[in-house]
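Step 1: inspect the first sequence and its tokens.
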Amino acid sequence: NAKYHKGLPGNTPKGSWTKQKMAEACEAYGIEIDVKEFRSTLWAKLKTHIAANIVPVIVQLAKDRGHEVVFTPPYHSDMQPIEMVWAYVKGAVGRQYTTSTKFPDVRQRLDREFAGLPKMAAYLNAVDDADDAAGAAFSSESESESDADSCDDCDFADYDGDV
């Protein structure tokens, strides 16, 4: 959920633009303006249009490939499987700490813990668990399509690890 994950396309108007560039952008987007309006007013109109109509680059890339990106709410690491993995590794390494621990020791322990992580199937189960937790926390009137699907139609062609 970091801000850099939600970067907009490079040609998206920015608040630092001149009034002239903002006016041109408003015209391009079909936003009605008065030439006497202040730059701040133009930016407010553009900002509203951008929020409603322009999607982050990563969201568009995923959509173009038939996927849907769902951002989890902040402060809900239980819904983010990678956070669960990191918590596991960090805890295992932290429990090995002694007063004589040096950075090379920490690196070796991190490498050992990451190497010992369960294979891909366990991660997929963690994702399913997180999805179930998200569904319970933010239940909707209809079940997610992915809840009913099995992983029989998943494409792991690009994955190099064990499944």
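Step 2: inspect the second sequence and its tokens, then contrast the two.
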Amino acid sequence: MSQLSAWDHPEPLALATAPLPEYGTGSLADLLPTLAAGMGVPGMTAGITELAPVDRACVFLVDGLGWEQLRAHPGEAPFLNSLLGSSRGGTGRPLTAGYPATTAASLASVGTGLPPGAHGLPGYTVRDPATGALMNQLRWQPYTDPRRWQPYPTVFQLAHDAGVHAAQVSSPTFQHTPLTKVALSGGSFHGRLSGEERMDLAAAQLAAGDRSLVYTYYAELDGAGHRYGVASDTWRG
């Protein structure tokens, strides 16, 4: 299995040009609130002004695949790469991840519409102030009450309460996890194993309401990157 050594020792980002989270106007945390605001959900703000309101929206989140990875590997994802120029309402600009850009913090920002410092899941491993123990916020070990960390309603919950058809389509493995409960719950959850099944079901859920907010999640690429390395043959495949 081949590996690309260029990814083994990446150049550090220059502080003067390092990308900063565009909280409030163009971050992952602003995506679902912007879509929900366009569907008339009370209390939601359309922070990403470049996105026009729509009645139905499907957010397809591929964990571990961002703007820079698509630009660096156009041959592996030609269709997605072809969309970069029309992204963010035709501006050709990306949304920014929050900080830290780890899975637990990012997914909680997506689902709640809040930055990590507000929703209470600020990293992969954090110190529990009640016990002093280190807690893994992705695997939720050792277990603590999830609502103690993240008490806010999700965008899906608010959309569902406003009459929007809200649905999550993901691996069945994630249905009952504490992270899903506090960050991505609301509406209905549909577990499917393969990516093809998720896409088919997401399309069906999108058509299920006059107003629909559907989220589908693909974790396998991130898992391949962690296990075999970004740009490995397995990751590329």
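Step 3: confirm your contrast with the notes below.
The first helix runs from residue 28 to 38. The first strand starts at residue 56 and ends at 62.
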